Amino acid sequence: MQQRLKPLEIKRVRKDYPQVNYVKEGIQYIELNRGCKRQCEFCWSDPNYKVFPVPKIESNYVQIWGENILYDPDIKEKIIKLGEQRVNKKVVYYGLGQGVDYRLIKKDMIKLLSENRIGLINNKKNWYKRIKIAWDLGIEEEGKIKSIIDLFRSCGYRYVGIFVLVNYKVSFDDCLYKLAKIKQWNCGVDDCPHDCTKRQFIPTYWEEKRYRMFRALCRDHNINLGKPKEVKPNSSHN
Ligand code: SF4
Q: Is the pTM of this model over 0.70?
């Protein structure tokens, strides 16, 4: 197995900067919180967790940034407040691109996300009732991952996407096992290479040819999974 020559040095603490809040091409990008307290050894999230107030909502499509929104002590109140917002007398749809931490979420929170239109938004301003969770740890987490998928589905999230960390200590074979489970559960998959990008792959724990093979399998799986139903803003929704 190919390894990096230099030891990995993760510098998590970032320079402070103002709360993200801007509109680009009709989508508003906001932060409610920043960073993550969990400090997983492979992750760059800032452990100095910060929280921000709900900013003025100006678009019917809002993308929420924040690595782990569930550490925010006021997250429930913030989500309710987001759900109450109207722009041009229409409801607002929210995207949570970085997913949720399955170890912190319970059914009441999933219901709250569902009731307040928290899903995924693509750059064409299409909103989907989808959610993402990460299966970064080993295959022994299978039972917990499956239970949380079931909980999301019981709250109306038929599509659940799973981030799978690759090029790290979980082996290629174990990641193939995860992919087989993801197929069996009819979920989407997003392979996340450790410490590099999908385009500019840097081998740390996996050889590049294995990563390319795994990526191709993930792509094939997602194509075969079909497209979820799109929802447009409608003032009759709440
Ligand atoms: S829970 Fe997620 S965001 Fe937080 S440190 Fe771990 S990988 Fe990073």
A: yes
Residue 23's CB is within 10 A of a number of other CB atoms, namely 13
Give me the pLDDT at residue 123, please: 85
CATH number of the domain to which 113 belongs: 3.30.750.210
Q: What would the pLDDT profile of 143-191 be if each residue is shown by its tens digit? A: 999 999 999 999 999 999 999 999 999 999 999 999 999 999 999 999 9
Mean pLDDT computed over every residue of the chain: 91
Nearest to 56 by CA among 79, 28, 77: 28
DSSP 189-213: EEEEETTS-SSS---SSS-HHHHHH
| ∠ CA 83-88-92, rounded to 5° | 25
Residues having CB within 6 Å of any atom of ligand 1: 36, 38-40, 43, 45, 67-68, 101, 136
Ligand 1: residue of 13, 37, 40 to mutate (most ligand atoms within 8 A of CB) is: 40
Atom of ligand 1 nearest to the CA of 47: 5
Please say which residue of 79, 106, 128 terminates a domain. 128
Report strand pairing: 27-31 vs 21-24.
antiparallel
Q: Which domain covers residue 163, as residue numbers?
A: 130-225
Assigned domain for 230 exists: no
User: Residue 150 has what pLDDT?
Assistant: 98
In a domain, 233, yes or no: no
Helix (H, G, I), strand (E, B) or coil at 26: coil
Residue length of the chain: 238
